Known about the structure:
By secondary structure, the chain is an alpha/beta fold. The protein is built from 14 helices and twelve strands.
Amino acid sequence: MSAFYTPYGAYLGGGLSHFGRAEIFWTKFYPSEVFAAMREQGHDHTINSEKKMPAAPKIVAEIGCNHKGDMDIAKEMITTAAIFCKADYVKFQKRNNRELLTEEQYNAPHPNPINSYGDTYGEHREFLEFDVEQNRELMEFCASVGIGYSTSVWDTTSAKEMASLNPDFLKVPSACNLHFEMLGVLCEEFKGGIQLSLGMTTQEEEEEIVAFFESKGRAEDLLIYACTSGYPVAFDDVCLLEIVRLKEKFGDRVQAIGFSGHHLGIAADMAAIALGAEWIERHFTMDRTWKGTDHSASLEPDGLRRLCRDSKAVASSLKYKSTDILPIEAETRNKLKWQPKAA
């Protein structure tokens, strides 16, 4: 890894490659109604009415448990994501481990002991856990540095606790998207947005989830993420066209479709934006070599910075020409364009 320097200190760069050119055959990948809307508006979601440019996707930097149970590290990561990387949100994780885990699971050794922060899996999870007041402190700290706060919730108790903080949105991880008791608590006790990942979920289960939110009158507040659950995920398992499938099936039934990635680099994220993802969620770490399960599938600060920068560039390019010859082309056309010689 190579070091790079910012006004906020030195960090280790992740060596993440910049995205290359992608050739996308729009008429093949987009449903006809979406393609027609793009022709008319320049994009299929929020449009800047003055410039007719698509809104850049929101970027969520998932800190998760990559803070190693240390509030100071968590705040350093928030500051870096906000000021250096310019992400829109950071996201943590909240668990009630006694509720989430069976006694056997709690007392079992960590399946990968080298990543464990305790003698048992339960002790490991408790070491990494922030309580409600610590999460409140982190939310206030986020506001002080100009970035949104959120957390994923893994059980009913955590859903109730985090709903009491009233963040802009709460997240349901793929592992818990069939926990309908918890989903019901979110629908009934939380008035903000609800985001939900669809990793390791069948298409029949997807329909059941969306129908549940519809039955609760909350589908208009639901954002669903195309996702493959693995850490990290090889590119041939990223399956970006799931974004298109979700847009075709649920685009008019939920608030938005996003992409939650666990791959390396940011190339796939750029393609996801081109395919219509309106939110991008990536795990974030200060150092991919740190102890813990998620670091290897996370972006380091420079990778997240590039993701935030390049997502805006890609979004601004997703439009049709406003006129046959753009102003930028006019002078070049006069100078270079072949013209038949006058007789």
